[in-house]
Design goal:
Length: about 250
Amino acid sequence: MTSDVLPGAEPFSHHGGPSGVLVLHGFTGNPSAMRPIATFAAAKGYTVELPRLPGHGTSVDDLMTTTWSDWAETAEAAYDELASRCDRVAIVGLSMGGALTAYVAEQRDSVAGCVFINPLVKAPPVEMLEGLEALLAAGLETIDSIGSDIKKEGGLESSYDATPLVPAKSLFDGLVKVHENLHLISAPSLLLSSREDHVVTSDNGDDLVAMVSGPIERVWLENSYHVATVDNDQALVESLAFDFLARVL
């Protein structure tokens, strides 16, 4: 049985002009961390979709039953639906939302542009994967939460209080193909990387810069941790993102 949606974790949809923006949140998070940038896009006149990915924004138990395929299919379907109503569509993704942004851009050469915010686009090192397998073999289902990596005093993300291991393994498995296919991304990209990030290592961004075939600009965020969309650099993130979107859309 699916749990109730957490307050603020509801999806966001706005019917605006002929240009569309798809916004994608991260693993164990929900639309709340991306709502400010989605509403900002709506205020700029864009048509916006911010889906709640399967298993997210309710309870960890719900996330336990979902996989990378569920999230990827949801992101792809959301893009296709938005593209059917808009002349051009760009994608903005945070963390795993960045992986999904990459995935959709690899599958759809019609993507007008990508904004990657501390994206996760590669599986972790082998030793970490082996450690995950050992935890699963020992019967452990969850580890500590990865949420609320925010530098801003009092900053708190509406994310789960635990990280489920089976879905995490599915995510890492899905990232293998995403990473292999980064060269297929021909759309212009903007990469926003926090100088200090306790969730996603900076080499994810390094590989994105090195491997995409389209033009990419990287900007370092000096005053935010992982969830930069609601951290000290929020205004900067929004300004950079929408200057970029104005160019590609």
